[in-house]
Structures are given as structure tokens and as C-alpha cells.
From TrEMBL:
EC number of this enzyme: 2.7.1.237
Family statement: Belongs to the GTP-dependent DPCK family.
Pathway participation: Cofactor biosynthesis; coenzyme A biosynthesis
UniProt enzyme class: transferase
Keyword Nucleotide-binding: yes
Primary role: Catalyzes the GTP-dependent phosphorylation of the 3'-hydroxyl group of dephosphocoenzyme A to form coenzyme A (CoA).
Taxonomic lineage of the native organism: Archaea, Thermoproteota, Thermoprotei, Sulfolobales, Sulfolobaceae
Residues binding GTP, per UniProt: D54, V55, V56, D73, K75, E127
Pfam families tied to this protein: DUF359
One BP annotation, GO: coenzyme A biosynthetic process
Identification of the protein by name: GTP-dependent dephospho-CoA kinase
Length: 178
């Protein structure tokens, strides 16, 4: 049996983004906002907001928009980044270019719960690809907000059509033991 660091991961499964599918994830899949005021007005229409990324999460919090779930890695463009809000965090391990099954299970539990308040997932590694399980496990009508580097923030409404599109991309991932 294999045990690694504080995450207690035993024989985890990794879904690896293949090189030939990277181009599909480089474009925004929702509405791109370059101004926070427009984004804030748009988000007023949603009950559950899920933020993925440090800058997006900090921008929402600074504008008093409190996400149901925030997923961050403490880095922006690979440089350390601190969100100065004091939330209790769940720590997970998720390497760049990978989605770990253990992280997917954690996100599933959070997204299927009816808890009130914010859950903060702190990723040791990289959080970018975690938009995929968030869309797959999110409830219809949730909105996922993630950063589009050097462009702004993308707001993506969870719907059956979007779940289908994301599952199609995810089906191209390679599966192996971590």
C-alpha cells in the first residue's frame, strides 16, 4: 500500500490531459467579462457561484460576492498569491495537467451538499482543470467563474448541454495510476 504525505492518497487514479486536447481548453466556454461590474451584475442571477482560480476568487471576495465553493492553488502565473480572507480550507493534491479521482470525489461531495456558506478548496499543485469536474457535478443553474489569462473572467452556467460538452472533452483524458 502506498501512502503519500498529509493527503493520505492510496493508489489514486489520475486523469491526464493529452496534448492533442489542450487547444479545446484554451478558449472560453462561457461569457468573457473584462470588467468586474458587468460580472457582478451577471452573477446576481445565480444562487450558487463556484470560483476556480486565485485572482477570480479574490476579485469576487473583494466585491463582496461570496462563492458557494472556491478552488485556489495559491499561485498566479506560477507566482505565490495569497487570498487574505479567513476561510476554513480543505487541502487536496492535484498536479498540473491532471485531475485526480480523489479530488473529483471531494468536489462531488461538496457540490451535492446543501451546505450554506463557503467551502474553500486549497490545491497543492494546480487547479485550472478542476473546472471540468465542477461542471460535471454542479447543479443546473450553478455558475462557474474562472480566469482567462490576460483577458478577464469567464462565467459559465452549468446546463445539460455544457455538461455534455465538458464530458466529451474529459473523455479524451488518459487514465493511469498516480
Amino acid at each position: 500500500m502506498e501512502i503519500r504525505d498529509k493527503y493520505q492518497i492510496k493508489n489514486d487514479i489520475c486523469y491526464i490531459l493529452p496534448t492533442n486536447a489542450r487547444h479545446e481548453l484554451s478558449r472560453p466556454y462561457g461569457i468573457l467579462f473584462s470588467h468586474v461590474d458587468n460580472l457582478a451584475n451577471f452573477l446576481n442571477n445565480f444562487k450558487r457561484i463556484i470560483s476556480v482560480g486565485d485572482v477570480v476568487t479574490k476579485t469576487l471576495l473583494d466585491n463582496e460576492i461570496i462563492p458557494f465553493l472556491s478552488i485556489v492553488d495559491g499561485k498566479t502565473k506560477r507566482k505565490a498569491f495569497i487570498i487574505d480572507k479567513n476561510f476554513q480550507a480543505i487541502n487536496v493534491l492535484n498536479e498540473p495537467g491532471v485531475i485526480r479521482l480523489s479530488v473529483m470525489k471531494t468536489l462531488y461531495k461538496i457540490l451535492k451538499s446543501d451546505t450554506k456558506g463557503t467551502t474553500f478548496v486549497m490545491v497543492n499543485g494546480e487547479e485550472d482543470l478542476l473546472v471540468i469536474p465542477v461542471v460535471i457535478y454542479g447543479k443546473e443553474g450553478d455558475v462557474v467563474v474562472y480566469g482567462q489569462p490576460n483577458a478577464g473572467a469567464v462565467a459559465l452556467e452549468v446546463s445539460e448541454a455544457m455538461k455534455w460538452r465538458v464530458k466529451d472533452i474529459f473523455s479524451k483524458f488518459e487514465v493511469k495510476k498516480c
